[in-house]
Amino acid sequence: MWESDGGLLARVDKDKMPRHVAIIMDGNGRWANGRGLIRSAGHRAGVKTLKNILKTAVNLKLEALTVYAFSTENWKRPHAEVNFLMHLFSEYLEREKLEMHQNNVRIKFLGRTEDFAPALQKLMRDSTELMKNNSGVKFNVAADYGGQDEIIRAAQKLARRVKTGELLPENISTQLFEAELDTAGQPPVDLLIRTSGDLRVSNFLLWQAAYAEFWFTDTPWPEFTPEEFIDALVDFGKRSRRFGALNE
Fold it and tell me: Angle of helix 79-102 relative to helix 39-60, nearest 10 degrees?
């Protein structure tokens, strides 16, 4: 088990903790530029932050953690940066998969995979297979992911079932639709965190975050600490979630 800071974790009321936390890990490039470094240095620093936050999630026994690693729109970035990100992604998985497995993490990849290099696709499959029977944190890595694309893919799957006569259109329900999403079987997002100051969801988990609480910070992702992660969880615990109803 990864070592934990018991005093830090004790700040969180386990009865008011979110089941599913999603994070838009923003600000790597800006953090690097502000220090006169190349953008890749920011991405490397961001990987270290991710490991620390995942450790904290494991020690808190969080049910699910989803991170936005690479969006469908990120292919528009300069070719050199995309190549570096793919290399860093592979390096991270290769280096961390055994330790994640030892800590009972169950990894899952959201989004498309067919445009990744065959070697990376195999590494993703191998990592998923290694951890498939683990019962700890469900660690979702959104890679080549877009919320609109996910919804379209789910709709297409249901449309094919309607076309074959297996399903009637009027029988399509929220539950059937959710079963076709990349996060099938997982709880909806309770808390969505975005670092580095921007106040938007950027096509991330559009369906799953329908009733999520939002928590924004100006801190760039490389400087985001377990302490600030805990701050977000504590703040979540103070909020009143009504889901459209009224509190008595």
Answer: 20
